[in-house]
Every structure is written in C-alpha cells, then in structure tokens.
Design goal:
Low-confidence stretches: 1-5, 17-38, 158-163, 272-276, 447-451
Number of domains: 1
C-alpha cells in the first residue's frame, strides 16, 4: 500500500533532524544558545549538484577528523565522512524519509572548504561511495539503506593490532523487511494500522578500512550480520537477558526496542589500573538512538565492549524530560572528553565527558542540539539547549542536529551539524566557540563547492 510522506514524517519525528526560544538551566553557565543567522554563510556542504551522485538529494551526520601529516606538522588535512541519499532512494515510498542511503567522504585543508571524494571504493555500485548498500548478503540488515554513526581514528585495539592502525566505521542500516508503521507512532493516525514500512528495523554494524576510503564489513553475531540489534524478548536469537547483570553486579532490566541506530562510539581512557580491583569500566562505550517498544519513547541507549566488536547492552543512558525541550524524544549524539586549553597552546584532557544530542520538542516537533555531562559515561546531567533552530528565513530554521565537535589549534571548538530548511532540504553547517563550550556563534564560511 502506498502512503503519504506526512504519515512517515509523523512516525519519524524522533529520527531525523527537523521555534521557540531555547531553554537553558540558568544555574549552569557552561553552555548558552547559539545566535541565529538569517543567511547560509555557515553552510560548508550541500547535496551534490550532480543528479546521479549518491548524495544529490539529502546529506547528514558529518563526522570530521583532523590529521597532521607528520608529528609537529602545522599543516593538517581534514576528512569528513557523511551519509547521503539520491532521488532514486528517496522516491521509494516504503523507505523512511531520512538522509541515510550511502556513506561518502570529503577532504579539506581548513575544515570549511570541502572537496568530495570522486572515486570512492571500487567495490561499490555508485561512484564516490565509501560504504554502500549490502548487495552481497540478501539476508543482511543493511540492504536497503545505510547511515553513518562514527569513525574512530586509525588505532590499535585489543582485537586488531597493526603497524598503521585501521579506521573503524560504526554505522546503521535497514533492510527491505516490512514492519507495521503504527508501532512507530506515538499517536493514532487513521489508516496506519494497515500500512507497513521498510528499513525501520535498523541495526548497527562495523566496517574496517586501511585508507579511510574503502571500507569492508565485519560480520557480527546477529544472524543479519549486525553487531547490535534491538532487544526483543520473543526473538529466539536473543540471549536470555532476564538474569543479565551490569559491570558492578547489579541486575539489569532491559526494555524491548524497535530499532538501534546512529551509534556513537568512544574509547574510555580511564580504565587502566582499576581492572584488578573490580571497578574498571569497559574499553569502549556505544551510545545509540532507539525507541522503546512499550512506550514509543525515543531515548539514547548505552552498550559496552572490551574490543569494539562484541557489545553488551546496559539499558538507557537517559530519556526525555517532561518539562524539557527534549520532552518528545532524545536522539543522535556526540560524546567528547572534557579538555582545557593550556598556556602552552595545547589541549589537555580533563576529568569527565560532554555529550551533545538532539532533543525533540513537543511544542513544535523540531530538533535542537542539547548538552549533558558525565564523570563516568553512565550517569548524565542535562545542561539544556546549546544550538537552537535558525531564525525565520534561515537555512536551518526547521531543525538542527547530528552534532560533532572538533577542537582546533587556536583553543576554539567547532561544531559540525546537520540543518534542515522548511522545504525539507538538508546541509552541513558549522558553529564555533572560543573557550570550550561556553558560547557558540554560527561560523562564517566562504564556500567553494565541489559538485
């Protein structure tokens, strides 16, 4: 049955970024709202002007890293991975109206002017793609669309030891399996009980690369090849989790989920020396977007791992708050270690973590970037809105989200984010603060696009 995009958009209000004044806890001075701009001078990447490109319709979820070519080298290269969708995928009325589709790459010398990867992986069916649809395994979880979660820098893990390290890309995907659309709705929509949708039973996977351009999938323990699947008590492939315990020995009470998507993975650097005492945290933490089956609540879950490949769920990191600007849901996040910029002009790691995430407001249904902080990656304190939607007439007035932070050599911090305008088009923009997350302003960028 064919159905209107309005029903899909209602169903996915907590999935895609997209006005009232921001709400910030006045007792907190760490964060404040970004100023809005009436133009698009802070846009750094738009959908491609080539109609045949994989990202010609929508783009989103920019993840940017900065590499020095040699130690002490002042010249650096910026690399952006992002996902995009073309008209062909978007015209399929059975897929959710997201910006997911395939994952590509772009490069820059200053983080503002970007050139798209023209070739991409030779094994993909579309030019310029680093990770595309899974065309080799018909049973795979990622045959219909894929979306970017996070890319970890070249590194060695307890499971992978190489001289140069590897890139680990955490991503999500959806298949052509049809699921009832009404199970994703938090209110009744006439006729929805007769409709189905493809690609919403999303799961999380991981892929590896030696050059950051071409990625190969790593098959996970789930029969679909995923490393993380939504918890479902009736699924025979799910282990009995009724007796599952947390790392501190407490009993877990996991809730059933409808999807697992938008993974954010961080390496925990505070575990050394604690393991023998039984108080150690895991090496890797994954925060992912999910929807609770029983309540339709959109929340952020957390899982832990020792090697980055086998994961143990640990429940919900945090939920919407009835009085907050995230009362309609919490989604896509980015987590960074706290840091201070020293007198020697370098960043020094500090205790604790920041999380930036999308909060959905029931007042207007729009997404805003919000913040939280934690000392242990498990207990989080919310700090309020840090990036509001743009003012009337701006390119990002209909929603902002998918934040990603990058600390720069001058002591400032840049935020890359996805914005959406009134007609549903998306782009990647930048905002900046001068002293580590105290006050952001939308950053000006003179654009030279590589179409």
């Amino acid at each position: 049955m064919k159905f209107s995009s309005s029903i899909l958009l209602t169903a996915l209000a907590g999935c895609e970024a997209w006005t009232s004044a921001p709400t910030v806890n006045s007792s907190r001075k760490i964060f404040s709202s970004l100023k809005s701009s009436l133009n698009d001078s802070n846009v750094v990447l738009r959908p491609s002007g080539n109609p045949e490109a994989f990202d010609s319709h929508k783009i989103g979820a920019a993840r940017v890293h900065r590499y020095a070519r040699e130690a002490g080298d002042s010249e650096a290269e910026y690399i952006m991975w992002y996902h995009g969708r073309n008209v062909e995928l978007d015209s399929d009325s059975k897929l959710p109206p997201l910006s997911t589709g395939r994952i590509g790459r772009a490069t820059s010398r200053n983080g503002l002017h970007w050139e798209r990867e023209e070739v991409g992986s030779a094994s993909e069916d579309v030019v310029g793609v680093s990770l595309g649809l899974n065309n080799e395994s018909w049973w795979g979880f990622d045959t219909a669309h894929v979306g970017l979660g996070q890319v970890l820098l070249p590194m060695s893990t307890p499971a992978i030891m190489t001289d140069g390290g590897v890139y680990l890309m955490y991503y999500m995907g959806g298949s052509f399996e049809e699921t009832p659309i009404d199970q994703y709705l938090d209110k009744e929509v006439e006729g929805a009980e007769k409709m189905t949708i493809q690609g919403m039973n999303m799961k999380i996977g991981v892929a590896l690369s030696q050059d950051g351009v071409a990625f190969g999938r790593v098959e996970g323990d789930d029969p679909s090849g995923a490393i993380m699947a939504p918890y479902n008590k009736s699924d025979p492939n799910m282990q009995d989790m009724t007796a599952l315990r947390d790392d501190d020995g407490s009993r877990l009470n996991l809730e059933e989920e409808l999807y697992c998507a938008w993974p954010e993975v961080v390496v925990n650097d505070v575990v050394a020396g604690d393991r023998e005492e039984g108080t150690a945290q895991r090496n890797f933490y994954m925060f992912y977007s999910s929807m609770m089956k029983a309540t339709r609540e959109k929340a952020i879950g957390v899982a832990v791992s020792d090697d980055g490949f086998k994961w143990d769920k640990r429940g919900i990191a945090f939920r919407p708050e009835s009085e907050g600007m995230d009362d309609a849901g919490c989604a896509r996040c980015s987590v960074v270690k706290k840091a201070v910029f020293t007198e020697e002009d370098n960043w020094q790691s500090a205790d604790g973590w920041y999380m930036l995430y999308e909060g959905v407001s029931s007042k207007d249904g729009k997404h805003r970037v919000m913040a939280a902080e934690s000392n242990d990656l498990r207990e989080w304190t919310k700090l309020g809105v840090v990036l509001d939607v743009g003012a009337e007439g701006s390119w990002d007035l209909d929603g902002v989200g998918a934040p990603h932070l990058l600390r720069l050599d001058d002591g400032s911090t840049r935020m890359y984010y996805t914005g959406q305008c009134a007609d549903g088009k998306t782009a990647i923009g930048v905002a900046k603060c001068e002293d580590d997350l105290t006050k952001f302003t939308r950053e000006q960028a003179t654009l030279t696009f590589s179409e």
